[in-house]
Specification:
- By secondary structure, this protein is an alpha/beta fold.
- The protein has four helices and twelve strands, in the order H-H-E-H-E-E-E-E-E-E-E-E-H-E-E-E.
- It starts with a helix and ends in a 6-residue tail after the last strand.
Length: 188
């Protein structure tokens, strides 16, 4: 089985586990661990995301962050994400893939990213929707300087061993309702 086929199968299984795990109680517990993990980054530029489907919802922590906060913008296929400033009062409109994006075009370069996912493993790798946007983005940001990538998920999204490609970027930590997995991962 090719890596692409293995990822496709892993995505389907992970989506089902995430959908089953999604609940307000689990999200609230995960957010408490996320808020604790972000304390050392008080004042740093933070990029989160506006959740789609059954993704864990980071917006309460983003809204409480002391420092600039933004969300990703998809510029096109095979391009890294860019980020725009976001607050709870930001006017949004529909962007690429039906994801809501800020109406105002105020750029943000994050020092810390909260990253969504379908699945993760104990090595710090994540499985996304297959566009490679976060992998390209993390690679580009890491070339510019230090950046911390924090995955936000539910514990049920843990996979034994995800298929990985050379372009996949590991996360520094993954936060779930059960706590924080500090991966210590470094890009290959």
């Amino acid at each position: 089985m090719s890596v692409g086929d293995a990822k496709k199968a892993a995505r389907a299984a992970a989506r089902a586990r995430r959908d089953a795990a999604q609940s307000d109680g689990r999200n609230t517990a995960a957010l408490a661990h996320l808020a604790d993990s972000l304390r050392p980054y008080r004042g740093a530029a933070l990029a989160g995301y506006l959740p789609i489907r059954s993704e864990a919802d980071p917006r309460p922590v983003m809204a409480a962050h002391v420092g600039a906060c933004g969300v990703p913008i998809v510029l096109g296929k095979a391009k890294p994400l860019e980020f725009r400033v976001w607050t709870p009062a930001t006017r949004l409109l529909e962007g690429a893939f039906g994801v809501m994006v800020p109406e105002d075009d105020v750029p943000l370069v994050p020092r810390v990213l909260i990253v969504p996912m379908l699945a993760f493993d104990e090595r710090g790798y994540r499985l996304g929707y297959g566009g490679g946007f976060y992998d390209r983005t993390l690679e580009a940001l890491r070339q510019r300087g230090p950046v911390t990538a924090i995955g936000l998920a539910f514990a049920a999204q843990l996979a034994d061993d995800l298929p990985i490609e050379a372009t996949d970027q590991p996360l520094d930590m993954i936060v779930t309702e059960d706590g924080v997995l500090a991966t210590g991962a470094q890009p290959a």
